[in-house]
TrEMBL record:
It comes from the Eukaryota. NCBIfam families: small_GTP (TIGR00231). The keyword GTP-binding applies. Residues 50-275 form the OBG-type G domain. Pfam families: MMR_HSR1, MMR_HSR1_Xtn. This is OBG-type G domain-containing protein. It comes from Magallana gigas (Pacific oyster). Keywords: GTP-binding, Nucleotide-binding. PANTHER family: DEVELOPMENTALLY-REGULATED GTP-BINDING PROTEIN 2. The keyword Nucleotide-binding applies.
Length: 312
């Protein structure tokens, strides 16, 4: 597909190929019967208010980061594949209990099962936030490979779900409604993509300028949209000038896990990306309903009971 020129004449062919590729990838995401679950050491019960998964290539510092953030021992060594199972830890930050998961290092081809990659990425799909831990000396190479592996397993990083309305129906054909001008999708391409899924009756509403990939994601219905922070580790090995450049890269936080440098910035960005919200519930004479959600400006009465909870 990469060698095919994108134009009106080839858009239908490309859309068909993308739909077929998405169907094949779905087989990697959906568990097959008799598979025995996620495998020993990968099934970790969710605890706390949020879950963060550490994803990265072997020996980039994930275990050191977990140990220094959460005080949990995860075996650390200067050789690859030291961590072979999921190692959990917990931190408390601004009153929230946050679960951290040090996942085994993934390699190219993880989405196809190499290096137990399917189990690793399956755990990543359950996270509220993903930390992609990169070696600052080779960040772009690793970043692109990891993004490719996660994308192949249905994970969309730092993206919102496509603004597409989709509803299957029994009859009436394909009805396409576009609320804004479309640069890629038209009725013919939509019919081609849906035809690959043997869907011939559906209502589609495009509320923004959408791509074929976004329509396929909606049709597949198994995508997860997870915020992601790229952690560039080992900044003690680069210059101040290089560090200044890194600070300008979106979604990135430079750190040294070994020296515990810049952990404050990392935790603040973590809190921002998790989007946790504190809610006050009040029982008593100051509210009409028992309990009632209130804001911080609410005035309490004597003997009122307040519960502060957090939600994502």
């Amino acid at each position: 597909m990469a060698r095919t020129q994108k134009n009106k004449a080839t858009s239908g062919h490309l859309g068909l190929l993308k739909a077929r590729l998405a169907k094949l990838r779905r087989e990697l995401i959906e568990p097959k019967g008799g598979g025995g679950g996620g495998g020993e050491g990968f099934d970790v019960a969710k605890t706390g208010d949020a879950r963060i998964g550490f994803v990265g290539f072997p020996s980039v510092g994930k275990s050191t980061l977990l140990s220094n953030l959460a005080g949990v021992y995860s075996e650390v060594a200067a050789y690859e594949f030291t961590t072979l199972t999921t190692v959990p830890g917990v931190i408390r930050y601004k009153g929230a209990k946050i679960q951290l998961l040090d996942l085994p290092g993934i390699i190219e081809g993880a989405k196809d099962g190499k290096g137990r990659g399917k189990q690793v990425i399956a755990v990543a799909r359950t996270c509220s936030l993903i930390f992609i831990v990169l070696d600052v000396l080779k960040p772009l190479q690793h970043k692109k490979l990891i993004e490719h592996e996660l994308e192949g397993f249905g994970i969309r990083l730092n993206q919102s779900p496509p603004n597409i309305g989709f509803r299957r129906k029994e009859k009436g054909g394909i009805n396409l409604q576009t609320l804004v001008p479309q640069s890629e999708l038209d009725i013919d391409l939509v019919k081609t993509i849906l035809g690959e899924y043997k869907m011939h009756n559906a209502d589609i509403v495009l509320r923004s300028d959408c791509t074929a990939e976004e329509l396929i994601d909606v049709v597949e219905g198994n995508r997860v949209y997870i915020p992601c922070i790229y952690i560039l580790n080992k900044i003690d090995q680069i210059s101040i000038e290089e560090l200044d450049i890194i600070y300008k890269v979106p979604h990135c936080v430079p750190i040294s896990a070994h020296h515990k440098w810049n952990f404050d910035d990392l935790l603040e960005k973590m809190w921002e990306y998790l989007g946790l919200v504190r809610i006050g519930l009040v029982w008593g004479s100051s509210v009409k309903h028992q309990p009632q959600k209130v804001g911080k400006e609410h005035t309490l009465h004597d003997e009122d009971v307040v519960q502060v909870v957090k939600k994502v």
